[in-house]
Amino acid sequence: MSKQNPFEPIFSLEMMGYTSIKPDDGKYRDFIFDEPSFEARFVEEFNGCQFNRVRFSGDLKKVKFIDCLFINCDLSNVELSQSLFHRVRFDQCKGTGSIFRKSKFKYTEFIKSQFSITDFSESTFENVKMTECIFTEGAFQSCRQSDFKTTLVDFTLADFTETTLTKMDLSGCNINGLRLSPQLLKGLTVDPLQALSLVRLLGIQVKD
Question: CB 3.0-4.6 Å disulfide test: which of 89, 100, 101, 134 passes with 114?
Fold first, then answer.
């Protein structure tokens, strides 16, 4: 028997198409959202849901997202702070200017998505993967992370100050203009060109 991929969202075999139904308890379970837009009001949880090309608006603060899949969705400028994301995948999504401040991400994947100028400050990342994404000018200050994997991610001008980068591997990523705390760099892996940039960022002069 094959081992379950811990990043793979788990869905019910009896998922229903969403038809503007608003649960009394604010908990949406086993829905497929194909609506062009969804305005969040009095939402507590999405569990086992799939969103296809949905444009979100409204307040999603303190919402639980469990076993959810977002495909080509737009979460730009949406309030999502203090939310929980567990076994969630963002595939080719957009979230420019959205706010995830003080949220928790566990077994969450970002794939070929754009989240520029997005606020992730004071969030917790546990077993998170980012692949071929854009997080330019993103705010990652004072975050906690463990098993945070990145592949070909654009972190240009992103802010990681007061975030410990132990065991993170940023090799192959764009870290031009990255802001960070020098005392929290121990254990960070970078490639040779990035190492030179970091040395200059720390104010060290390198002679040819």
Answer: 134
Determine contact, residues 51/35, Cβ cutoff 8 Å.
no
Residue 4 lies in a domain: no
Establish if 48 belongs to a structural domain. Answer: yes
Is residue 15 within 8 A of residue 35, CB to CB? The reply is no
DSSP H/E element including 69: strand 64-71
pLDDT in tens, 82-96: 999 999 999 999 999
- Cα 166 from Cα 132, distance rounded (Å): 21
Q: Give the single-character DSSP code of 42.
A: S
Per-residue model confidence as pLDDT tens digits over 47-85: 999 999 999 998 999 999 999 999 999 999 999 999 999
Residue entry with tokens 């990035």: 194
Residue 1 belongs to a domain? no
Number of Cβ within a 10 Å radius of residue 109: 23
Task: Give the number of domains in the chain.
Answer: 1
Structure tokens at 65: 């997202």
Q: Is residue 75 part of a domain?
A: yes
CA angle, 121 then 197 then 175, to 5°: 35
Cα–Cα distance between 43 and 23 in angstroms, integer?
9
